[in-house]
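Input/output pair, single chain:
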Amino acid sequence: MPSHVLLDTKFDGLSLLRRGKVRDVYSAGEHLIMVATDRISAFDYVLGSGIPDKGRVLNQLSAFWFGRTGHIVTNHLISTDADAYPESARAFRSQLEGRSSLVRKTNPIQVECVARGYISGSGWKDYKATGEVCGIALPKGLKESDRLPEVLFTPATKAESGHDENISEEAAARVVGADLLARLKKLTLELYAHGVAHAESKGIILADTKFEFGLTDDGELILIDEMMTPDSSRYWPKDTYHPGGPQPSFDKQYVRDYLESIKWNKQPPVPSLPDDVVQNTRAKYLDAFSRLTGRELVTTRA
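Output:
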């Protein structure tokens, strides 16, 4: 049976620093505790329904990828074991277990780093309108979901609310500096290549993904936030891949498609999801997790 849905968190004695669309971030002395809830957002709004175990999938899949890519770049993860958290947090072990991470503090870089191996989503919309993606001219005649001739690095602005916007490398360099952007691009493409190779070995196409980076107080560049999850990536089954339109996916595109089908105007009030959409979405997240990691999701609560 699905686990209880966690939509909001409150831990007495822990200071809430930020409540995002999905994650709640708490202060834990010199570190942070990031809690992945079961909230789901679409079209820039948090929906009225949660997806059971979604937060656990995001947290544990990120930890899986962080563990595989430390040779490429250092990341912010310290531990996902609630028993290793500061004493003030251990009292909430039953809620934190499996869906939280103790992480290093950083100063987040205000550009998101997107790698695209296929033309889809906002990249497809930009290409149809201009023949370009983030100022990069692409060959004529590409179909939706086509594999690109080469992987693109397409930065985006980070938005506290609302939708992030694709920008050119030149515009991104004006935000973070040319030298730092060059480092971000190199790391983004290396991380994506690693993810693509592993996913392909599991029968999955990693069409695109986004990474976030931060600088520590001593200037070290590290990978932060989530990593190659169904929330931050497009995952497609390899055996059904057929360019020329949208692909079946392991991510929340299923939810977006439902919302389009009911003609929601993408304004409040936000809709809730019917039970079959909730359960089917949960199944997609769990399927992606098990295929990519070869592991069972940790859901046991003490």
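The mean pLDDT is 94. DSSP finds eight helices and 16 strands in the chain.
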